[in-house]
Amino acid sequence: MPPAIGYCAGGGKVDPTLILLIATYCQWQMAHSYAIWTVHKTDYCAAGLPVLPLEKTPARITSHILFFLLFGSFLGSQAGLGVFYFSMLIIGTSYWLIAAGAKYRFASSVVTGLALPPRNVHTTVTHHCFLKKLARLPLRLSIGDSQIKLFI
Q1: Is 141 helix (H, G, I), strand (E, B) or coil?
Q2: How many helices, marked H, and strands, marked E, lie in the chain?
Q3: H or E, element range at 17
Q4: Which of 40, 48, 53, 71 is the most exposed place for a label (fewest CB within 10 A)?
Q5: Angle of CA points 101, 59, 40, to nearest 5°
Q6: What is the pLDDT along the chain (152 residues), one digit of tens a residue?
Q7: Alpha-carbon distance 99 to 120, whole Å?
Q8: Number of domains in the chain
Q9: Within 13 A of 44's CA, how many CA atoms are on the CB side?
Q10: CB 82 within 8 A of CB 74
């Protein structure tokens, strides 16, 4: 896990900030991997790779992804990001989900699995740009005895 290795190399110790970094990385990685595994299900089956989401129903996979996303949303409050950041995260993500759902529902071609149509790319780019601008706000991270001012 490169972020944790870099943090330990720079700081030389394991502290609550590192634990928060690892939790953030893991929750993002699991939701992202589940989505990729679902989209490329046939490739994984053809290769004979044992992948956890392939043994679950689509509803179960979706519930796991939502759990990881909700868990990740609450990690921000533990880092001291505050109500404004959390509210903007919810608004931006809700916009993306509504736009993605509308495009998926009205797509002219049938898309297999949970993949979204390629026309959804502009919505994803808008969502990421929105969150990147929001993340440029200064953040005072105080966990335990340490207090760090950083720009994410």
Answers
A1: strand
A2: 6, 2
A3: helix 16-39
A4: 48
A5: 75
A6: 676 777 777 777 777 777 777 777 777 777 777 777 777 778 888 888 777 766 677 778 777 777 877 777 677 666 666 677 677 777 777 776 776 666 555 444 444 444 444 454 455 555 555 555 555 544 454 455 555 444 44
A7: 8
A8: 2
A9: 16
A10: no
Q: 58, 78, 98: which is the final residue of a domain?
A: 78
Q: Is the torsion defined by CA of 40, 70, 105, 59 positive or negative?
A: positive
Main-chain phi, psi angles of 113, to 5 degrees: 65, -145
pTM recorded for the entire structure: 0.47
Q: Residue 88 and residue 71: Cα distance in Å, rounded?
A: 16
> Of 61, 78, 95, which marks where a domain is finished?
78
- Of the candidates 94, 47, 45, the residue with the CA atom closest to the CA atom of residue 73: 94
User: Angle at CA 143, nearest 5°, toward 139 and 146?
Assistant: 90
> Are 19 and 39 spatial neighbours (Cβ–Cβ below 8 Å)?
no
Structure-block tokens of residue 74: 């609450």
Q: 129: how many CB neighbours lie within 10 A of its CB?
A: 11
